Structures are given as structure tokens and as C-alpha cells.
Amino acid sequence: xxxxxxxxxxxxxxxxxxxxxxxxxxxxxxxxxxxxxxxxxxxxxxxxxxxxxxxxxxxxxxxxxxxxxxxxxxxxxxxxxxxxxxxxxxxxxxxxxxxxxxxxxxxxxxxxxxxxxxxxxxxxxxxxxxxxxxxxxxxxxxxxxxxxxxxxxxxxxxxxxxxxxxxxxxxxxxxxxxxxxxxxxxxxxxxxxxxxxxxxxxxxxxxxxxxxxxxxxxxxxxxxxxxxxxxxxxxxxxx
Length: 239
Description:
Blueprint: H1 2-11, E1 15-16, E2 23-24, H2 32-37, H3 66-70, E3 77-83, H4 88-97, H5 101-118, E4 124-127, H6 132-138, H7 142-154, E5 163-165, H8 177-184, E6 188-190, E7 199-207, H9 211-222, E8 227-235
């Protein structure tokens, strides 16, 4: 009887909500109540994802924040799904540092659903790369693991080889703005011609100052990409 019940649970993928642990069926990851309570980013600048610029649910492509009006970013737009708040902040930390690749799949699918309804057409998905030393120590790139279900769900090609990180940079988390800018300068390179003439979606987990994404975007544009938009799981900070 126990074996039969375990087989039934496995067949129907019976599990529990990632947030409240309520039993779930049919491939769900969050119960309806927890899905509705996630910290969705609804009102934001389309140029950098800064919150509070547009009316909730009404993103005007021409209504940029003051910073983006004065100094436009090199990427064409930002599509961010969540505020960097709980429980999303915890999920991201677990995904990055505790090998919770199941969370990458779940959150990537939520990103795909959001992007499908909001993004312009792109030709190619590229995740922000890790330096090879960090990739060796961590064992995986969380941006790539987010990008995999997005690419599959949207039926878009995924390229994780053309854009590389050429030097090992410090973690940006505790650095000042000036130190972050210096830290990430000339940190990326494109090693082939597969981005030439392409409209690219650059995928990453968190956007804080945007300096890493700016550096990667500038590298892609110099290599011949026609446009770069950012697909971000969570927007942190206010800058």
C-alpha cells in the first residue's frame, strides 16, 4: 500500500508549495495564494527597472526615471519580474549558493511567462557569464540555469559560449559604486561572431546598480549585436 501511494505521488508530481508547504499536485510549485503574494515588480522604469516610476500595471516605454533620462543605459530595456524581497531573496541565495537548481527551473518558468507577455522579439538568449574560476568552485552558473527553462519555454536559442568573463572580479555586493565600476571594467569579451546582427536578451538573477549588465551589454554591442535587453529575475536597490 505504501509503495503504491509513493508511486502515485511520483506519477502525479505531488509535492508542496515552496513557500507555505501546502500540498500541491499537477506540477505546481506555488499554491495560488502564495503565487499572488510574491513581490511582483509592477511599476517601474523600463530603462532600468527602478520601481515607482509608472502606474502599477501600466509601463509606458517613454516614461523613464530621471537617471535614465539624463544618462540612458546601453541596453534597450529591462524586464524584471520581482522586487528583491522575501521570499524571492532567499530563493535566489539558495539557488546561487546551495545548489538549489530546482529553484532555477521554477523561477525561470515564471520569468518566461512574464517575458512572453511583455518583451519585444529577440533572436538569442545569453546569460551573464561567470569567470571560469568561480564556475569551477560553484559548479554551475545560476544565470545559465535560469536561462535554460526560459529558452525552452519561449523556443529561443540559448548561447552561453560567445560571451565570456575574461578576468576574475570581486563580488560587487559590498563595493561602492566607483569600486564596482572599476571592478567590472573590461571584464567581458565576445569570442566569436555569433552575436553579429542579433537582438539579444541578456539574463541575470539580480539587478542592483546595473553596472555588470552595462559592461556586458557594451561588449555585445561592440561585437555587433543590434540590441540588448535585460531579462532579470529581481530588481534590488533604488538606483
